[in-house]
């Protein structure tokens, strides 16, 4: 989370907005709404474009602050990007050069660390700022560093920067993660694609965004086996070439829109999704009393008046995603009984709890467990978004809270949702963006 002064300065500089979202709660949502492309799949794919000079056309790219930040990061390396249409991004890496990934950019978006692997692969050296902490804890990058070392890189930390060198190029290695990490798996995949020899990654992340990255690398000419499984094998190739690709649907946006239906007793169909990526989320929505109908690209959710209480534990994919934890906390805060939510990925990702309590939720946190006693109704109040998914949770809670809920600091929301308020309004919510 950015400190207040810094956020206000950035707002003045035009890099973030101080917009608020105002919601009049109590409307039952109904209708059909389209889900956009995945932010967390787009970010590593953009970094992967650094691996081969040329032009790339990416489609179904969400128009989000985080994507703009990554494009800005690529600009540091002489890479140009343009959006001929809202959801198409053209990347040109022909004039790419090595440079530093500066603190100013990396601190605003951890995923900037994705440039480490491609830079090492292309230039044999990289200088990337350490990201530092974030709203809900330290979020280390030790696994990224260990992975690069296993591929032969020498790494030191110098004045807050990761300085990595592989003067004779990267070579294949065996990596076994203690913890499944999305970012470290993606970074190592990119670094290993052109390393000499074979790399194996055990306990690799299986998230759909990593599968999408691996498939993108395949289309660039990489050789990767075991895609979608926890054991990835990369046979390094001398060169890659540019490729074009559509981004996969954003499973977290889809899940958030489904919770919007569930929390308002609604009937909403979300289109442009891949229901196979949503297994754990759909199971929990059903357990909470909603009925679901899925096709290859849609999910329709019809909700009861009030959700049933359930227990949720976040796990690496295919388990329940930590990025849906806050939204489910909002949902379960109005359930017909007591629920528990355990976050095993980020033990203190609970900054939304105090804000939900301002709306009347009854939640007690002990360690990494939240005990949520469902209440009959919430009541609108001014609340403050503290991070991306917390913002979504507060807006969801506002949809059922009586009266008006005003969510401030929605620049967090804009990092990862493309006009969520407009999508909710199209389903009948009374919600608007206000520029104070
Ligand atoms: C990605 C997602 C983020 C999501 C998270 C977990 C992107 C851009 N972001 O973040 O939205 O919440 O996956 O699904 O895709 N860890 C270490 N050392 C490391 C790296 C991670 O200990 O070097 C730990 C983390 O603290 C965490 C766990 O590993 O407990 C998983 O984190 P990871 O999968 O790496 O998250 P990100 O890739 O940062």
Spans of 5+ residues with little confidence (pLDDT < 50)?
A: none
Based on Cα principal axes, name the global outline: elongated
Euclidean distance between termini CA atoms: 21 Å
- Which molecules are bound besides the chains? uridine-diphosphate-N-acetylglucosamine
Tally of helical runs? 15
What is the mean predicted local confidence, pLDDT? 95
Strands across the major sheet, in which order?
22-23-1-24
Radius of gyration: 21 Å
Share in β-strands: 15-25%
Based on secondary structure, the structural category is alpha/beta
Number of strands: 24
Write a compact overview of the structure shown.
The protein contains 15 helices and 24 strands. It is of the alpha/beta class. A four-stranded mixed β-sheet has the order 22-23-1-24, covered by helices on one side.
Tell me about this structure:
The chain is α/β, with parallel strands linked by helices and 436 residues long. 32% of the residues lie in helices and 25% in strands. The chain contains 15 helices and 24 strands. It has helices at residues 4-13, 39-48, 65-75, 103-106, 116-123, 142-150, 182-192, 208-219, 251-263, 279-287, 325-332, 352-358, 388-400, 411-416, 420-426; strands spanning 20-24, 30-34, 55-59, 80-85, 88-92, 100-101, 125-129, 154-158, 161-165, 174-176, 198-202, 223-225, 231-235, 245-246, 267-271, 291-294, 298-302, 311-314, 338-343, 362-366, 369-373, 382-384, 404-408, 430-434. A four-stranded mixed β-sheet has the order 22-23-1-24, with helices on one face. A four-stranded mixed β-sheet has the order 2-15-17-16. The two termini are 21 Å apart. 51% of the residues are buried. Uridine-diphosphate-N-acetylglucosamine is lined by residues 40, 43, 110-111, 139-144, 179, 181-184, 205, 209, 321-323, 345-346.
């Amino acid at each position: 989370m950015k400190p207040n002064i810094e956020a206000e300065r950035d707002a003045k500089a035009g890099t973030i907005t101080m917009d608020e979202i105002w919601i009049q709660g109590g409307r039952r949502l109904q209708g059909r709404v389209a889900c956009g492309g995945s932010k967390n799949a787009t970010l590593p794919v953009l970094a992967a474009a650094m691996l081969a000079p040329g032009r790339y056309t990416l489609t179904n790219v969400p128009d989000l602050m985080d994507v703009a930040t990554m494009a800005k990061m690529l600009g540091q390396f002489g890479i140009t990007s343009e959006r001929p249409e809202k959801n198409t991004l053209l990347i040109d890496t022909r004039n790419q050069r090595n440079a530093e990934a500066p603190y100013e950019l990396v601190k605003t978006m951890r995923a900037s660390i994705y440039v480490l692997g491609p830079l090492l692969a292309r230039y044999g050296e990289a200088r990337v700022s350490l990201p530092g902490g974030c709203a809900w804890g330290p979020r280390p990058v030790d696994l990224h560093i260990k992975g690069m070392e296993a591929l032969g890189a020498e790494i030191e930390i110098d004045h807050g920067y990761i300085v990595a060198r592989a003067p004779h190029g990267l070579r294949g290695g065996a990596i076994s993660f203690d913890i499944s990490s999305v970012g470290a798996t993606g970074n190592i995949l990119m670094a290993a694609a052109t390393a000499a020899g074979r790399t194996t990654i055990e306990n690799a992340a299986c998230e759909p965004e990593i599968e999408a990255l691996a498939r993108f690398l395949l289309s660039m000419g990489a050789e990767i086996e075991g895609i979608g499984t926890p054991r990835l094998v990369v046979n390094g190739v001398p060169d890659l070439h540019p490729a074009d690709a559509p981004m996969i649907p954003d499973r977290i946006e889809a899940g958030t829109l489904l919770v919007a239906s569930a929390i308002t007793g609604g009937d909403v169909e979300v289109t442009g999704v891949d229901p196979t990526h949503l297994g754990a989320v759909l199971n929990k929505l059903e357990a909470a009393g909603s009925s679901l109908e899925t096709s290859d690209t849609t999910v329709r959710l019809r909700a009861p008046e009030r959700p049933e209480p359930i227990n949720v534990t976040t796990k690496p994919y295919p388990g329940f995603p930590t990025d849906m934890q806050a939204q489910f906390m909002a949902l379960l805060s109005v359930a017909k009984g007591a629920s528990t939510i355990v976050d095993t990925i980020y033990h203190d990702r609970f900054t939304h709890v105090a804000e939900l309590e301002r709306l009347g939720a009854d939640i007690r946190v002990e360690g990494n467990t939240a005990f949520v006693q469902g209440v009959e109704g919430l009541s609108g109040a001014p609340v403050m978004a503290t991070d991306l998914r917390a913002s979504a949770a507060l807006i969801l809670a506002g949809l059922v809270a009586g009266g008006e809920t005003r969510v401030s600091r929605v620049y967090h929301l804009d990092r990862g949702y493309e006009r969520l308020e407009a999508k909710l309004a199209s389903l009948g919510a009374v919600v608007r963006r206000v520029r104070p």
